[in-house]
Amino acid sequence: MISKKKLLQAVSVSALSAVLAIGALTNAATVNAQAGINELTGLATTAPENQRPIAVMIDNDKRANPHYGLSEADVVYEMINSTHNNRVTRLMAVYKDYNSVSRIGNIRSTRPTNIMLAAEYNAVLIHDGGPFYIYPYFDATGLNHLSGGFSRIPNGKPREFTEYCTAGEAASRMAKAGYPSAYTAYEGQHYTFGANSLADDAGVAVATTVSVPFPHNSTQFVYNAATGTYDYYEFGSPVVDGDDKQQVTFTNVFLQDCDFTLLDKNGYMVYNCIGTNVGYYLTGGMVIPVTWLKTSYTGATKFYTLDGAELVVNPGKTYIALVPSDAWGQVGIK
């Protein structure tokens, strides 16, 4: 196992300089995306090339299952929502072509970390409230967001598990709020897409099963050789989308070692996601150690190989877990 110190030293001065330059680019009007290609996945899309994404806060309590629209997300973040309740996690799903998704949710409240991450994409954040700690982060990022008032769909569960964003709602709510559907700022491409077997990377190892130390949810991934993707498991069972009944699966899995600051005795916290630390990148049944770097509230998180080069990411859907540093040693990869 390569130490954190050596991993951090592996980020070259040139790589750091490049990312700092990216972080300084603000208020660019267009994404300069390739027509017909989703800049979040590197795959084909029918969405307008400059259409900004939405980021939706999705409950991850077992009572909220099944998730709707999760299999259609381009990028999914998972992180602990609180240090209470056995560190229950919450999801944030990012969609480029959101108008094609019939139902997303159920929707829950946001946290400060989600605001900083959604701002990386110039996304419109969809949530239902949150603790008062969120407001300075909205001010700092200037993030457009829509809170509450989405469709309530009876499902036999308590009211907090019944709110969903249905097809067309995001677009109509954005228009009503005066939020542009096109990018208003862009801080640099998140990923450099290309074929990458990881075979030539330092520290490469086989990775067919992954255990993420989220104790409440027991998050796991199992490599599916038939699809070449990592199937998502929680609570000991496959995560199957409630809408299209498909297994939720990802081409790319990132694990970030990220410490946090506790905000109060109620367990509210914020990840210290501006900075640099170590991580893992899994794809194609293999894993390599990486480093990550985020330079500002809105700057894109970038990933680097051990030689300091920016990581080449396989086209496809991506999962990112922010693993608390105090649990990083419990990550299991086999």
Automatic annotation (TrEMBL):
It comes from the Bacteria. Residues 40-177, 210-320 form the DUF3048 domain. It holds the Pfam family DUF3048. InterPro entries: DUF3048_C (IPR035328), DUF3048_N (IPR021416), YerB-like_sf (IPR023158). Residues 1-28 form the signal peptide. The keyword Flavoprotein does not apply. Keywords: Signal. This is DUF3048 domain-containing protein. It comes from Butyrivibrio fibrisolvens. The lineage of its organism: Bacteria, Bacillati, Bacillota, Clostridia, Lachnospirales.
